[in-house]
Amino acid sequence: MSEFLEGLHPDSLVVAAGRPERSTDASLNPDIVLSSTRHPGGEIGYGRFGNETWSALESAIEALEHGKTLIFPSGMSAINSIFSLLPIGSVVTASRNGYTGVMNILASMARNGQIEVRYVDVSNTEEVLAALPGSSLLWIESPTNPALEVADLPTLIAAAKGLGIGVAVDNTFATPLLQKPLDMGADFVMQSVTKYLAGHSDVLMGSVSTKDPELFNRLSDVRKFGGAIPGPFEAWLALRGLRTLSLRFERAQDNAMELAKRLTTHLAVDRVRYPGLENDPHHERAKKFMAGFGAVISIDVKGGAAAADKACESSKLVTYATSLGGVESLWERRHRWSSESPTIPTNLVRIAVGIENVEDLWIDIDQALRRSQE
Ligand SMILES: Cc1ncc(COP(=O)(O)O)c(C=O)c1O
Question: Active-site residues: which are they?
Fold first, then answer.
């Protein structure tokens, strides 16, 4: 990382990091390098081993997460690259309420006899601490998707590291703007770059960052020989999106806070889950070490799954779709996916708040929720 970047704030880093060296007529932005094949004698050698456009995005994420970074073609491939480092028979302690893709892959690895999984409520510190002895890896998603539970990251990371256990944090919901798990001692931090970092719902990408050079080299080999490599164009698009991360995230968080407050008194809503609300069970903890509360809200819609579906189908500005982190607001009933965790209520609707005008969002959400009760 260039020296001058070191003192910059994250909202400057998203703009300034990952740019080519300055020289006469050099491009301001990285070029999209498409070659699979190269002349001999250089550091890259072949298209699966490295790429200048990947490196530009990697160095920008490195500046934000504070660890050397590798990008992958999706968040899931980034996650699988970490799991692939586990020796057969390893015990993994992981969120019970985590992202369904992770729940699926952990269950399938356990079924195949590769690992044993201890599922915990990551927001219940005592429960996690009790599960740790004998684990090889603590997998923490925080805030969790979609229940928005917040883990006590500093305590859990310190406890696991004290026992010599590896720690990986899925930082997708918080982004490096709100928390930096590597600085708290985690071994890995991963991002579904698809979400806030890229930010425009037009690219799938993942990243893993670590401060440990040996782990970095092992992961780099996983990518090189496993072959899960990102496309240069997608890397370029993701970096282009990252330039506005601070602005987008700030606006989306402001919108989320306002909508969460209004939703608490809505007649069609049984419960609002958002760590930014003062009476949310995770508020005090989040305030201690997060620089904000994120831009996802979950609500339990009165009237059960049918009413929740009706609400999602009745919105116009807010799109009924899965994903989050884009400029546009989305919502969905999570249990429309059969893979959703049984501990998530069937009437829970996850709202991925975007950067539209908050009054327009409220008018749309309010009318859709009213219709859900008809
Ligand atoms: C918290 C979290 N982690 C990981 C992923 C997987 O990322 P991707 O869809 O980029 O593979 C997602 C996707 O929704 C997610 O929400």
Answer: 48, 99, 170, 195
